[in-house]
Design a protein that fits this description.
2 copies of one chain form a homodimer.
Chain A: E1 12-18, H1 26-42, E2 47-49, H2 63-69, H3 77-89, E3 92-101, E4 104-113, E5 116-122, E6 143-146, E7 149-153, H4 162-170, E8 175-179, H5 195-207, E9 210-214, E10 219-220, E11 223-224, E12 230-232, E13 238-240, E14 249-255, H6 258-262, H7 278-287
Parallel strand pairs in A: 1-2, 2-3, 7-8, 8-9
Antiparallel strand pairs in A: 1-14, 3-4, 4-5, 6-7, 9-12, 10-11, 12-13
Helix pairs in contact in A: 1-3
Chain lengths: 294, 294
């Protein structure tokens, strides 16, 4: 068969928009996100990732405040504004948003294309006081098929669970977008990249997928955030960032997402996703490993 | 309740012995391993890890050669020699060995204490031409209870499967020992640590376990190995190494293995091993993610 690499798909420019939402100032946060989406598109981005809870901010004081800031998806004003931007700029967007469904809140990410709303991911693993406001995600780890490739999403603490990355990769994800609000963690070596970045690299490599993590910066009600947004190749090595730990910044990487699929046969015997020993894992998870030793 | 940290357990010295076995020269390889075990014990080590296939070497040319070099466990001479060394030096040992059971070979690790043979791990995920000689491991991922803590083992390519680390951590492992023969991989950034080290760091952090990986150096029948043995704290940061990429070397770290258990409540809500959403993973693995998209 003829080798015609490059005919079936093209390199695209991915942008991670590291910004500083202010809690409660939804109008201003959305306006700023629209400005930065326009800027990224102006520099050629075809896919842009915004941080976790980019419209609402993160550190809620009360349930009332969280409920007031959350919106229906896709009918709420934030999703509608992002859909308009996606159409205007011929852009795919993955963005963190406070979602309200009836009396229930989720820490969600919307996936939007130039032709409109595509789908929602709801954060599966809640961190710290998010447990006071949000329900754990109930949509699993969906993969969305788009003209630029198969896209999955995870949010912040989800990245501490290799299970999530693996489930997305097993469904064929080429790129996993991570809207996030990473916070400082104990034991961080100040002389090197964040442990959160290390987790992105390991996940990208061991699943042969691209990972694009857009973090926020700044401090809210005493809680600092660490920036350092990063775009990682399917090889596991960063191709953009880590970004600054303090400043708003857009990082860009040009990537052919098909390379993730094309490069998984590491030798004549091994393809990491097919080498999984589900016989072993399933038997152990079913029988021996659930008691609470840990 | 009284806080009496330090009464129940003590810091121990862990050693990873990075050596260069020569394929086929089993007698010389075992003699060298005994010399280095003695050296590590002389410097206070209570646990020593040797590389994958430390007795036989790695690059077999024929099945016949592999069969000739493999031994029964624990009755074979290599395991017996290591048991004697463990008794003499009051040492725990985790060491890679070519195992023969009847007409079947396994790429195994023996776990040995001062009082003798404890158990065996058989490499679950075979790499490259290992598939010509060995059977995939059929003992799961066992955790061994010892006076110095709960110890698990994985071998080389097993480390590309976060499932293995997770299964060991879920059974309460404090320390995961990794006899390995890491080889160069495409895309490695020559200016920084090996991707294999990144995987160890991510696994240690996201499971809150210690990881001690002992690699080999040198070249066999054209196949180079990359050294860079490393001991990683439960925080995810190296506490010894990475070692040289070319030289034989012993790296040492002093660690209180109980810290892995003690430090898992990251805040009032989260403990990473208990935050797993097995409801989500199990349902997805059972239904949606097995078709071969990848």
């Amino acid at each position: 068969m003829a080798k015609n690499k490059g005919r079936h798909e093209a390199e695209i420019r991915i942008a991670c928009i590291q910004m500083e939402p202010k809690v409660g100032r939804k109008k201003a946060n959305v306006a700023k996100s629209l400005e930065l989406l326009g800027k990224a598109a102006g520099r050629g981005a075809k896919l842009a990732v915004l941080p976790e809870l980019a419209n609402s901010g993160y550190v809620f004081e009360t349930r009332e405040e969280a409920f007031d800031l959350a919106e229906k998806i896709p009918s709420g004003p934030t999703t509608q504004a992002w859909c308009a931007a996606a159409a205007e700029h011929d852009l795919h967007i993955v963005a963190g948003i406070a979602e309200r469904e009836g009396q229930t809140l989720f820490n969600s990410a919307v996936v939007i294309g130039p032709e409109g709303y595509i789908g929602t991911f709801r954060k599966v693993h809640l961190w710290n006081e998010e447990n006071l406001f949000f329900e754990p995600g109930n949509l699993g780890f969906p993969v969305f098929h788009t003209p630029i490739g198969r896209i999955g999403a995870m949010i912040c603490y989800d990245g501490w669970f290799p299970e999530g990355y693996r489930l997305l990769a097993l469904q064929g994800a080429d790129l996993i977008c991570v809207p996030t609000n990473w916070v400082p963690i104990p034991g961080q070596d100040s002389k090197r990249e964040a442990m959160a970045n290390i987790l992105c690299m390991a996940a990208a490599h061991s699943n042969s997928v691209f990972v694009a993590a857009a973090d926020r910066v700044g401090r809210e009600r005493g809680q600092p955030f660490i920036g350092q947004s990063v775009i990682v190749s399917y090889t596991g090595w960063p191709i953009a960032g880590p970004a600054s730990s303090k400043e708003e910044e857009i990082i860009y990487a040009d990537a052919n997402l098909s390379d993730a699929r094309r490069s998984r046969n590491w030798n004549e015997y091994n393809q990491v996703l097919r080498d999984r020993r589900s016989d072993v894992y399933d038997e152990m998870l079913g029988t021996g490993t659930k008691p609470g030793w840990y």
